[in-house]
Design brief:
This protein is mainly α. The protein has helices at about 1-15, 20-25, 30-45, 50-80, 85-105, 115, 120-145, 145-150, 150-155, 165-180, 185-205, 210-240. It has two domains: about 1-110, no CATH class; about 115-240. It contains twelve helices and no strands.
C-alpha cells in the first residue's frame, strides 16, 4: 500500500500535473523547477494527509531526491546532447528506485525476495521475452544479411525511420506471444491483416518483385518465430 500510494503521487506529480509548458520553462528558470517540486510535495501531503506524522521524514526525502534527480537531468540536457528517450527512462528509473528504497527502508527487504522473483514461471516469461525482443532480431538480421547488402534494399531502407522496422518487429512478436498466452489466436490473423494493409502501399509502389518477396519473407519469418516462442512458453507453463 505504501508503494502504491507513492507511485500514485509520482504519476500525478510528474505527468498529470506537469504540463509541457512547465517542462520547457524549468529548463531555463529554476523557479519553475521549484514549482514542480512543490506541486509534487503537495500531492504527497494530500495522499498521506492522515499519516504525515508517521511518514513525514520519508516524504521529505522523496521531495529532496526528486529535486536532485530533476536538477541532474536538466544539467545533463544542457551539457550533453543526449537521447531524450534514454534520458527519460533513466530519470524515471531513478525516481522509481527511490520509491522502492523507501519501502525497503520502512519495512525491510524480505529475505526470500530473490526466491519469490526467480520462480519457474517468472524465468519462463523472462526467457520468452528475451527470445522475442533480443534474440530474434539478431537471428533475423543474420538470416537477411545476404539480401540487406544489395543496393536496392539499402536505398529503400535509407528512406525509412531509423530502426523503425526493428521496433515494429519486436512489438508485433510480443503481441503475438501475448495473444497465444491469453488464447486470442484470431488476434494474430487481425495483426497480419493490419500489417498487410499498411504494407500494401509499399508493395504497390515497388516495381520489383524482389522487394515484395523481401517484405513477405520477413513478415512470415517474424510471425513464425513469435508463434513458436508463444507455444513453447505455453507448453512450459503447463508443465510447471
Amino acid at each position: 500500500m505504501l508503494f502504491l500510494k507513492l507511485l500514485l503521487a509520482h504519476i500525478l506529480g510528474d505527468f498529470v500535473l506537469q504540463s509541457n509548458f512547465l517542462v520547457e520553462k524549468r529548463k531555463h528558470n529554476v523557479m519553475y523547477l521549484f514549482l514542480h517540486v512543490i506541486i509534487h510535495a503537495a500531492v504527497l501531503c494530500l495522499i498521506f494527509v492522515d499519516q504525515l506524522p508517521q511518514y513525514y521524514i520519508l516524504l521529505s526525502f522523496i521531495v529532496v531526491s526528486h529535486l536532485a534527480i530533476d536538477s541532474l537531468k536538466i544539467w545533463v540536457e544542457k551539457k550533453w546532447n543526449c537521447n531524450q528517450a534514454v534520458l527519460f527512462v533513466v530519470d524515471q528509473f531513478l525516481h522509481i528506485t527511490i520509491l522502492v528504497a523507501i519501502v525497503f527502508a520502512k519495512y525491510g527487504i524480505p529475505y526470500d525476495l530473490l526466491q519469490q522473483l526467480l520462480t519457474v514461471k517468472s524465468l519462463l516469461y523472462l526467457i520468452a521475452f528475451l527470445l522475442t525482443a533480443v534474440v530474434s532480431p539478431v537471428f533475423l538480421k543474420v538470416v537477411f544479411s545476404k539480401w540487406n547488402q544489395q543496393n536496392e534494399f539499402a536505398l529503400k531502407k535509407s528512406e525509412t525511420l531509423g530502426n523503425a522496422g526493428l521496433w515494429i518487429g519486436v512489438m508485433e512478436r510480443l503481441i503475438i506471444v501475448l495473444f497465444i498466452q491469453v488464447g486470442f489466436l484470431s488476434g494474430i490473423g487481425f495483426l497480419l491483416a493490419a500489417k498487410s494493409i499498411f504494407r500494401f502501399g509499399d508493395l504497390t509502389k515497388a516495381k520489383d518483385t524482389k522487394f515484395t518477396e523481401y517484405i513477405l519473407v520477413g513478415t512470415l519469418a517474424s510471425f513464425l518465430i513469435a508463434i513458436t516462442i508463444g507455444y513453447m512458453l505455453r507448453l512450459g507453463l503447463k508443465l510447471t
